[in-house]
């Protein structure tokens, strides 16, 4: 799951950084989504850490 979140983050970053993609408002949205995906990966890592500490 963490890998999925990081892959999604990279996907949104790649699209937003494409020089041919000129819509600045859409670029901002994509960057925000990428940041959300990175936060999600952090949450997944916290869950993994909690589960590993219980076992």
Structure description:
The protein contains 2 helices and no strands. The protein is mostly helical and 55 residues long. Helix 1 (2-17) packs antiparallel against helix 2 (24-54). The longest helix has 31 residues, at 24-54.
Order of helices and strands: HH
Mean pLDDT: 93
Please, how many helices? 2
Rg from C-alpha positions?
14 Å
**Class computed from helices, strands and strand pairing:** mainly alpha
Number of strands: 0
* Count of discrete structural domains: 1
Distance between the termini: 19 Å
Taking pLDDT < 50 over at least 5 consecutive residues as the criterion, the unreliable ranges are none
Portion of residues in beta strands equals under 5%
Largest sheet properties: none
Q: Roughly how much helix do the residues carry, as a percent range? A: over 70%
Shape: elongated
In short:
It is elongated and about 50 Å long. The protein is built from two helices and no strands. By secondary structure, the protein is mainly alpha-helical.
List keywords for this structure.
mainly alpha; 2 helices
SSE topology sketch:
Blueprint: H1 2-17, H2 24-54
Helix pairs in contact: 1-2
